[in-house]
Amino acid sequence: MNRFEIYLKNTNAADRLNERNAQLSARFGDTIFSDWSDDEFKEAGFDRFLKCGSCWAFATVATVETSYAINNRELRSLSEQQLLDCDLVDNACNGGHVDTALQYIYDNGLMTEYDYPYVAHRQDTCYLHGATTTIKSAVFVHPDETSIIDWLLHFGPVNVVINATADIKQYKGGVYTPDQWECENKIIGLHALNIMGYGTWNETNEKYWIIKNSWGQSYGIQQGYMYFARGINACGIEDQPMGVIA
Predict the structure, then answer these.
(1) 10 is catalytic
(2) From the candidates 52, 55, 86, 183, which is the catalytic residue?
(3) Which terminal Cβ of the chain has fewer Cβ within 10 Å, N or C?
């Protein structure tokens, strides 16, 4: 199948999703992934440009950055590349786990993005010097809507992992609400995200999490964010929440 045929297939899929969700808020259409097949999307590790499956590192660092800013009134841009090079428990561009990444940060701290820039592959050497930021604690939050909201209100963002589906690459706005069949049968892979807040879509009364993604500022809404169904554990989003205090 050539690139244009893939694009047409994805466009038709987006149209069907819009028809199916006509009474809901979610909308689907052309995105940066519209000319990618499901297999390409999976093999690229969800990274449109750099082909590195480092969502676990980006999600982990984003939570630490935000928690540090909340508690210290200073926003620091910290290094994802340090996790790829130096956290040898995890597998760099081949995936990793938020809990082990947080253990690494607790033990070693993080350098800034400026001092340790992102190159999207594991380098031969870990350049560990001048770490500026560490964390005080990291905990598994109880896996339910109320506990996650309580953590958001008192401490800050929450790390989560979902079974990412093929449909998510066509998301354009509204509340993304995958059904159980999609979460079980249209899985592309595991994907780490950050819950930054929550709300309700007024017109349809759909509850949602405000999600920070790592697919670039042109994805989704508000420069890389999305609204994801809240309170129904869609695609396992409420299964393994983790919180950080920095």
Answers:
(1) no
(2) 55
(3) N
